[in-house]
Write a structure and sequence with these properties.
By secondary structure, the protein is of the alpha/beta class. The protein is 24% helix and 24% strand.
Length: 275
């Protein structure tokens, strides 16, 4: 019978970075050691990495995925009423199925075996992409999602990430948070921007969930991660021992505003010191 005292140390990392836009999540890719591959779903992700040695595939909604019709919650004879004047409303959103085909092809071909890191930026925009496809499939594109649509979205995303985090290499994913207030306790907390039970289920798939933040003034800007939970960030945790609750992950800039030795700083430095 196996005993936990003899359990092998985890050789790979599965890191989930959460935080608001501008908190430095994508920038931490610069600090990761080894060969990196990025699935970019955020339109600005690649621009944040200009000059960084990272291979990528970008899957952002093209104009054919977007529905411009106005949606309302007013009902007429049991049907949601919206503006049907947009000539774009019947176009099929294809970004998700294009990504799905690419991902399955890379899995089958062993493409990821050549990399030390696979990165998913971000869960938030990926979720929107999944919902667009579900609404089209259910004949509700241009309407507000219904409960079965949210259920299908959660199941799809959970299945994708169960495969994603079981790749035999290091994994990093980014997710956005918004500040919510509990009406009963009046406490505020960071709310991961995913649907329903995914807010609890997705973090279970990662070894480290860190909250990114930024402190700045007119003179300086510092980026950091929070490694232990508190009332504001209840899902944060780490498996790396000895970390401070707040770790500075700022990458210093040179005179030409390029990053100086990024792998010696930020999350890359934390991972190097942990080995």
């Amino acid at each position: 019978m196996p005993n936990a005292k003899d359990a092998p140390l985890t050789k790979t990392q599965r890191i989930l970075l959460v935080g608001p836009s501008g908190a430095g999540k994508t920038t931490q890719i610069w600090t990761l050691p080894g060969k990196k591959f990025l699935y970019a779903f955020d339109p600005n992700a690649v621009q944040s990495l200009r000059g960084c040695d990272v291979d990528y595939e970008a899957f952002t909604p093209d104009v054919g995925d977007l529905n411009l019709a106005i949606k309302t919650l007013r009902k007429d004879k049991g049907k949601v009423v919206g503006d049907t004047s947009s000539s774009r409303r019947a176009l099929e959103p294809k970004t998700y199925i294009a990504w799905e085909a690419d991902f399955e092809d890379k899995l089958d071909s062993g493409f990821f075996n050549d990399y030390n890191w696979v990165i998913f930026d971000s869960i938030t925009t990926f979720s929107d992409m999944v919902m667009d496809r579900i609404l089209w499939y259910e004949g509700r594109l241009g309407k507000h999602p219904e409960q079965p649509d949210w259920t299908a979205q959660m199941a799809t995303i959970q299945n994708v990430f169960r495969v994603f985090v079981n790749l035999p290499l290091n994994i990093m994913a980014m997710g956005h948070v918004e500040i919510r207030k509990d009406d009963t306790t009046n406490r505020t907390y960071g709310h991961i921007m995913v649907t329903g039970r995914l807010r609890a289920r997705l973090p279970l798939l990662f070894t480290n969930i860190w909250a990114c933040y930024c402190d700045s003034d007119a003179e300086a800007i510092d980026y950091g991660i929070q490694t232990r939970l508190d009332r504001n960030n209840p899902v944060i945790r780490t498996t790396i021992k000895g970390l401070d609750m707040y770790e500075n992950v700022t990458i210093p800039l040179g005179k030409d505003n390029s990053y100086l030795n990024p792998e010696e700083h930020g999350i890359g430095r934390i991972l190097r010191d942990a080995t």
